[in-house]
Amino acid sequence: MKISSKYIKEKALEIGFSACGIAKADFLKEEHEHLINWLNEKKQGTISYLEKNTEQKTDPRKILPEVKSVIGVIANYYPEEKQNPDSFYKITKYAFPRDYHVVLKEKISKLIDEIKIIEPDALFQFFVDSNHLLEKTWAIECGLGWRGKNSLLVNKNFGSFVLIGIILTSIELETDVKQKDFCGTCTKCIDTCPVTAIEKPFELSASKCIANFTIEQRKDASTKNTFGWIYGCDICQDVCPWNKNIPFAQLNEFKPNPELLKMTKSDWENLNEENFNFLFNDSAIKRIGFEKIKRNIKGNSSK
After folding, report:
1. Which of the residues 115, 146, 220, 288 has the least number of beta carbons within 10 Å of its own beta carbon?
2. What is the pLDDT of residues 46-74, one digit of tens each?
3. Under 8 Å CB-to-CB from 263, ≥6 apart: which residues?
């Protein structure tokens, strides 16, 4: 029995993904050229790891020579709950619950196990927020949305508050049609960014982005004002019309940590390392460490 794309998509939804799409595993020449130009213009800033694996990012055959298809999955993480209005310090919504890297990898592994029941000899390799593939680009190729003017994936049903997983497989599958761009003439994400990180439509300069500074930037810059954001930034997503009236996350794993949401401005400013480790033991925030969170708080505390 040969597995069908329909079967894979049905299983992906059963496991908890919001949507699943499939693309042919090919070299994306135009996207590769865009990546090289973006790097040459130093838009990556100090995120030097983005300069690695440039060939395989747009050609999955460089990763898995037997690859025939790319399976993309997305999971909506938009929370119904909000941070305490007295918090002052803001964190990106994907950091409210359990670390999404772990959650998505667990669910992708389940999906692959389901596929292997029918295709036991098939080969697979999967990625979640890695530096091996342009995951947003491949999600677009899989028909899961379009590139918003803030460079994020936007899905018609779930907006941009989605997390992406990409699976490479040796199985040849029926592919999906790419979606057209539905941003139209809207420029809200560009107009609202306080650091002008979106330099032009679809062109993000990571060297300016608040999310980059609060998460990736390693050098000491404790006086940097990031407009209250201490881990990530959702400004360009919060103003996007496609994020109005989207459904809340259905996965239990994406239910926010209530202790985190309760934190006040004083709680953040008096955070010690023991409480940090307790609060963020299963959170994506843990990856930047206690000292960096304190640095980010210090940069905004007098603003």
Report:
1. 220
2. 666 777 888 899 999 999 999 999 999 99
3. 83, 84, 87, 89
